[in-house]
Fold:
Amino acid sequence: MSSDQLSLIFAALADPTRRAILARLAAGVASVKQLSAPFAMSGPAVSKHLRVLERAGLVARSRERQLRPRRLKPGPLKKVADWAESYRRFWEPSFQRLDAYLHQLKETEKKHGHRS
Amino acid sequence: MGTAAKLGVTSYTTPSDREVVITRVVDAPRELVWKVWTSPEHIPRWLVGPPGWTMPVCEMDLRPGGKWRYVWRQGDGTEMTLSGLVREVVPPSRLVTTERWGPEWPETLNTMALTEAEGLTTITLTVLYPSKDARDAALQTGMKEGMEAGFARLDALLRSLVEGN
Structure:
């Protein structure tokens, strides 16, 4: 996967509405109208988000029917998941320990005054 | 990229073909984060990766040209060593090091930057690979080691994307 494609995917995932659309499509195909319903958004606004997702290769439209329901294309998302996973596996638990450790050190400093 | 980092959420981006940038905001002043990040007394207390890992060896000669070496021991007893040289030390804001997993791995240039605002410290880690191919190869190897469940993880990713924000 090229860096440009990764950038398009990250940009697409940066928006909470688009993530919600992907989560909805992960549950099954949906028309633009069905996708608009939970978001209190107009069809054109949702279509705009869908275009961003399509450009990133994350969503495809079925051509066979008039409603042209959208479906999730998990391939690129899986690549990002794989990509991030190798870092996440190491850093996520480490950062959680760091949070807890910093908290513990701050508490100790509070109790005993500032240490060197 | 573009989105402000939030407390407790790690962001991963690729600003160029050769870089990976990891950002995390912690609830502590910069001086404390610097100390915990750079001192062998503190590093093994938190930089331990997945559950079951420990860091029995932690050496850090914190000056330009100084050597550093971390050894992790996994649950099954296998060990993993990461080592390199210190290039630049600017307490409490910037640490530049080289890093290598072993002779067959590409050497990366790692920059750790700390900025503080309103008591919160933003940690920005930039890993610069010698080439795009080296980065992709390293990521793919990391994936092979870490990935079997594939789509189960995709589901987990989607959930975290939705719930974490």
Summary: Strands of chain B lie at 11-13, 19-26, 54-60, 67-73, 79-90, 94-99, 108-117, 120-128. The CA atoms of residues 70 and 110 of chain B lie 15 Å apart. Residues 11-129 of chain B form a domain with the Alpha-D-Glucose-1,6-Bisphosphate; Chain A, domain 4 fold (CATH 3.30.530.20). The longest strand of chain B covers residues 79-90.
